Amino acid sequence: MSNRILLLVVCCGLVASASAQLNFEHLTFNGGGGVGIGRDDVAAFVGNSGQVEAGVGFNLNRLFSVDAEYMYYDLGFKNSVKIDQGLTGQKGHMQSISLDGIVNVPKHIGKFAAYGIFGIGFYDRTVSVPRHFLQQGTEYQPAFLWWDLSTINNIQYGPLNAQYISSNSKVAGGFNCGGGITYRLYHHTEGASKLRNNAKLYLEWRYHRAYQSDGKTIVMPVTVGFRW
Hints:
This protein is α+β, with helices and mostly antiparallel strands. Helix content is 16%, strand content 53%. The protein has helices at residues 2-21, 41-45, 79-84, 194-198; strands spanning 27-39, 49-59, 64-74, 91-104, 112-134, 163-184, 200-212, 215-227. A hairpin with a 4-residue loop joins strand 2 and strand 3.
């Protein structure tokens, strides 16, 4: 719980700092969602899943901007993993807060534009199952990795000690990179609202890697959203 509170405080601090110190006319906002493509352990346990993101940014100039962004990524296991590894009722998710730099491609093609993005952040991965007891000598399953379960004689991936399994969370640092394309919904017109002039649809691909103590958590969200 304390880790989640810390994550929320960091997010609020970034947003508050941007709002207090920067000219509001240069602020940007975005929100969207789409499919998340898992790699390594995420691919094995979860496969592809859903994700959403939202952020607030600041345009430094026409080429460079920064933003603070929140992401929620579903980590519900595949049904086959839940059944085969004794994890019926499993739920999971990863939340992240990142601070990103954005480089806008100066050349536009009509209403289309492109950008690259790179950032660092904090990632909170949480998994849970209905609390139940594991007998001494229970065979270690691959997905148990995310629960920090103890094994007999501390043998890696060996038979388990008698213990309960319920929920487990890990917060770690990490990075992301990627890029996207935007489509401006309106032409710039004198006297029009900021929302009307800057409204864009965007399609974005990102690579996120978090360094939890039990291994790397790698996800690749593909997002369709709205920027203004």
